[in-house]
Recover the amino acids of this structure.
């Protein structure tokens, strides 16, 4: 066994590492970023990262210790796990960790590799929510076991954030927004993202990513008890390095009666294994759709600028705000704005009715959206510099909850919104 944090403080000669044949459960697809002071520690982490037990995790190793981490996370979202090597004096490291905490997402865990066997420091670290404290010299197996224990304990929180996308009406572009935002998230953060397509009969995830998979989410929903990490791996279809889809079967010779429990179980297994789970919901109102919206970490409603969309979006907003009092309120995007000659409800009126600004206002652009849909590509793949591609990148950043919408010269979100409001 690895010395746990308390045992680590009992001085004993040399490192106590697990034996090579001791079972260490593989870590799930977590994102891990390490900030080391010494090249030797960076090397140990690198060796651990290449081990089969961390094969699914995405590990990046940086130098500069806790100070570099503090600077880094002022600009960037935090991963599932931050590893920090620090030989700073106790007060100094605690002060730096307090600064780090200001920019840490709630789900992020922190593992410290220290140089001192210091009980006071250990207690202070625990108080600050640090998950594990290892004392140098650390060996790769010890580090792997510590990481594995953080994620394989049934009492620990699941690793993944769940974002549910739904349209205020059918055909308003909810799936398109969902897929583009998910793709941008995976490209920007370089962490694993899974899109779960719950529109079993008509879903477009396979088409939008140019995939024709044989298996998918219906296989999981039909026997949710059987779904585990190994089966999940088989049922997912990989679209790019970090994006996989859990596609809908899209055949009509079956009935699709999804149960609330089954749906819950499937999403839970995915979120135990993947940092970002994007749920593409159909525009229907069933027990499992309601449940999926209530369970998600964030809900994103896509609406087109007409009266029925406004009414439905308002109803969804009111329902979710009342039912999720301790959560963020839902976000909404206005899509297909500016169809020629069509009278439209202005974003300002939406904002007034929903008592919130849209997170994105996406113009109606049939040419680029049509080309992307027909090619099975994302907007950013068809035209990386296109302003809508930038909108999706900003939307993805907003979803991680960390970055403000940046005002860029090419318009987008806020500027476009204010322009629209002035009209
Ligand atoms: N901003 C836009 N400009 C032009 N076309 C768009 C835009 N957004 C989406 N579309 C197109 O609208 C169509 C419907 O999009 P999508 O399937 O994403 O909608 P949905 O809300 O998920 O529909 P459903 O109710 O069937 O789930 C697609 O052909 C898509 O390419
Ligand atoms: Mg859809």
């Amino acid at each position: 066994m690895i010395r746990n944090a308390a045992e680590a403080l009992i001085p004993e000669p040399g490192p106590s590492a697990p034996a090579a044949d001791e079972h260490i459960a593989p870590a799930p697809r977590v994102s891990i970023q390490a900030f080391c002071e010494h090249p030797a520690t960076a090397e140990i982490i690198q060796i651990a990262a290449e081990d089969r037990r961390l094969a699914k995790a995405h590990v990046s190793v940086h130098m500069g210790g806790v100070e570099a981490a503090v600077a880094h996370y002022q600009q960037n979202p935090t991963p599932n796990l931050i590893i920090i090597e620090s030989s700073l004096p106790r007060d100094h490291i605690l002060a730096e960790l307090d600064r780090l905490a200001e920019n840490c997402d709630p789900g992020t865990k922190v593992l410290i590799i220290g140089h001192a066997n210091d009980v006071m420091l250990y207690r202070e670290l625990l108080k600050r929510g640090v998950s594990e404290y290892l004392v140098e010299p650390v060996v790769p197996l010890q580090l792997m076991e510590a990481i594995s224990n953080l994620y394989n304990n049934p009492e620990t929180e699941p690793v993944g954030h769940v974002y549910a996308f739904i349209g205020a009406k059918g055909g308003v572009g909810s799936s398109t927004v969902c897929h583009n935002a998910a793709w941008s998230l995976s490209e920007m953060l370089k962490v694993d993202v899974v899109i779960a397509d719950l529109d079993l009969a008509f879903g477009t995830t396979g088409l939008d990513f140019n995939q024709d998979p044989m298996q998918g989410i219906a296989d999981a929903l039909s026997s949710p008890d059987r779904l585990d990490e190994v089966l999940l791996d088989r049922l997912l279809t990989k679209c790019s390095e970090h994006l996989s889809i859990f596609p809908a079967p899209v055949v009509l010779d079956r009935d699709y009666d999804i149960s609330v429990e089954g749906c819950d179980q499937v999403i839970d297994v995915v979120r135990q294994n993947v940092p970002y789970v994007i749920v593409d919901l159909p525009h229907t109102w069933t027990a499992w759709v309601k449940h999926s919206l209530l369970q998600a970490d964030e809900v994103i409603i896509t609406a087109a600028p007409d009266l029925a969309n406004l009414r439905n979006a308002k109803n969804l907003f009111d329902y979710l705000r009342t039912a999720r009092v301790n959560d963020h309120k839902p976000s909404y995007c206005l899509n297909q704005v500016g169809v020629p000659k069509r009278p439209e409800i202005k974003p300002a009126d939406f904002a007034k009715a929903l008592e919130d600004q849209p997170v994105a206002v996406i113009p109606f652009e049939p040419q680029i959206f049509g080309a992307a849909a027909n090619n099975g590509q994302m907007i950013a793949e068809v035209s990386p510099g296109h302003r809508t591609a930038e909108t999706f990148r900003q939307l993805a950043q907003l979803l991680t909850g960390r970055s403000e919408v940046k005002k860029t010269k090419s318009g987008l979100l806020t500027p476009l919104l204010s322009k629209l409001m002035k009209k």
Q: What stands out?
A: The pocket of magnesium ion (ligand 2) is lined by residues 174-175, 199, 282 (CB under 6 Å). Residues 307-323 form the longest helix (17 residues). The radius of gyration is 23 Å.
